[in-house]
Amino acid sequence: MTNDYSQIWYSEEPYDVGGSTTPATGVQVISGRSRVHAIWVMNRWVDSSTTLTLTRPICLLDSSGGNLLYKTAFMNPADGTSTGASKPLMPYEHYFGGNGILFPNGVWFGVDATDQSGSTSTSSKTALYVALLYTGGVNT
Amino acid sequence: MSQLYKCRSKPIVSIVDESTATSTTVNETLAPSGTRACLRSFSGFSACTKHENSSISSAATSTLVSVEFQDGSAVTVFKFYLPVFPPSDIVDLGGNGGFGSGLHIPGPGILFDDGLIVKMVVPPNPLTGDNGGQICGLVDVVYSV
């Protein structure tokens, strides 16, 4: 584990990082040699369904279109019988352990174009917020 | 030689009654401008008492409780939305709220070298009856100065 202070990159629009649709090849969000230690995702309810919807995996790459060093996917917290107006927001935290994942030249944040079933429906975009905890680099 | 700092903690809570038309902001200065602080971890949740109350809902960020960690000049370093886990059934069977998130920060924490302010904003809660009831946000912060 690092002795350095953590830094944080976050987005409230993880599917549109940088103002346009986040590509699977990634958008650079951290520059410089970095170690990513954790990811926080807030996953939201998007529709009422009796089918558990897969969502588009989030990826961390070591360059644009480069090596995929981390990938994570989420399930839509759907409820087919939900009648309530208040919808859940579910936290997902993944701490990588050890010294984190090394990105020698920065971190590129990517989102797959489809969910794990191949669907491109908007309902597969359920992450409302994403944050990366890292050391070494700086936010771009 | 390493220098050790004692951790402190601060619970920040805001309960908003029904028929509240505007958002409610709580500002808590944990370290004033000109002093250093280190954010170690935090945990929190939001809740509503009635499942038909859409004042807190993940339908939009405007209907979630936000927490901003700011420096002493009120510049936001990062923002976070508190989780909510409402009852999803038509009958309020209980078990609403209290679903926290333990957000550890790797290493020593995040350094705030010129003050640390926590700003929590609870959205408006304008309705009454089945769509009303109180809503709340709560965040526990562990930090050192």
Question: How do you describe this structure in short?
Answer:
The complex is a heterodimer of chains A (140) and B (145). Chain A has no helices and 10 strands.
Describe the structure.
The complex is a heterodimer of chains A (140) and B (145). Chain A has 140 residues and is mostly beta strands. In chain A, 0% of the residues lie in helices and 41% in strands. Chain A has one domain (7-139). In chain A, a hairpin with a 6-residue loop joins β4 (58-61) and β5. The radius of gyration of chain A is 16 Å and the shape is globular. The two termini of chain A are 24 Å apart. Chain B has no helices and nine strands. Chain B has strands at residues 7-16, 24-31, 37-48, 66-70, 76-81, 102-104, 110-112, 116-122, 135-144. The relative contact order of chain B is 0.41. The mean pLDDT of chain B is 88. Chain A binds chain B through residues 1-8, 10, 12, 37-38, 40, 42, 44-45, 79, 81-91, 93, 95, 100, 128-129, 131, 133, 135, and chain B through 38, 48, 50-59, 61, 64, 77-90, 101-111, 131.
Which key phrases capture this entry?
heterodimer; A: 140 residues; mainly beta; five-stranded antiparallel sheet; 10 strands; 41% strand; globular; B: 145 residues; 9 strands
